[in-house]
Amino acid sequence: MTSFTQTAWQANLPLFETTRDMPFNRELAEGVLPPEKFRHYIIQDAHYLEGFARSLAFVAAKGWDADHIVQFAKAAEVTIIVERELHADYFERFGVSPQDFASAELSQVCNHYVSYLQATCAQAPFEVGLAALLPCFWIYREVGRAIHESAATNNSYSAWIETYAGEDFSEAVDAVIATLDSVAARCSARSIERMHLAYRRSAQLEWMFWDSADRLESWPL
């Protein structure tokens, strides 16, 4: 029997492939992404990851058992730690001061994505929130792997590439996939339908997030 995650991945494969091959990620792999685009990206990513960690905490509180609570509370903690370490390095390298970050508003897409995740994880059942969180884990890993395989030598963005193509992150992704499949096996057909909708919406927002950095998106007014 095909698992929930296998079905979701195959149903959204064209969306993933479009995300993997978008100009921002190709230029990142080649090491030719304009610094101002990466600067925009890391500022928004730091804002996003804080919201993502809060969403993980919501899901942890709704876990069906103690192992779920531990898994996702720990994931929230690790998200904050990784965000601080990765972005502190890149903020310094790309000239982003603490004041620059604090004064930078969430972009339209970042605001939408964070608001969607937090609302879903806070208001929807555990399984639906978990499905909404999975694309950030899974798509990031697969995009990171693809970039790593084709990355130019002496790439100035190598730390980002190594983080999301590394074994530690991959193991965390596998653990989330396993938990979601275990949970989905005990869900009703209606819950499964809601989970697929939540997964797809987040997968769409993943593409939109990178696209917004590529366009240096700002609020129109």
From TrEMBL:
Q: Name one Pfam family in it.
A: TENA_THI-4
Can you supply a Gene Ontology BP term from the record? thiamine biosynthetic process
The answer, when asked if Cytoplasm is one of the entry's keywords, is: no
Instruction: Give the catalytic activity.
Output: thiamine + H2O = 5-(2-hydroxyethyl)-4-methylthiazole + 4-amino-5-hydroxymethyl-2-methylpyrimidine + H(+); 4-amino-5-aminomethyl-2-methylpyrimidine + H2O = 4-amino-5-hydroxymethyl-2-methylpyrimidine + NH4(+)
Query: What superkingdom does the record give?
Result: Bacteria
- Listed pathway(s): Cofactor biosynthesis; thiamine diphosphate biosynthesis
**Assigned EC number:** 3.5.99.2
Q: Which GO terms describe its cellular component?
A: cytosol
**Residues in coiled coil:** none
The name on file for this protein is: Aminopyrimidine aminohydrolase
Instruction: Give the classification, highest ranks.
Output: Bacteria, Pseudomonadati, Pseudomonadota, Alphaproteobacteria, Sphingomonadales
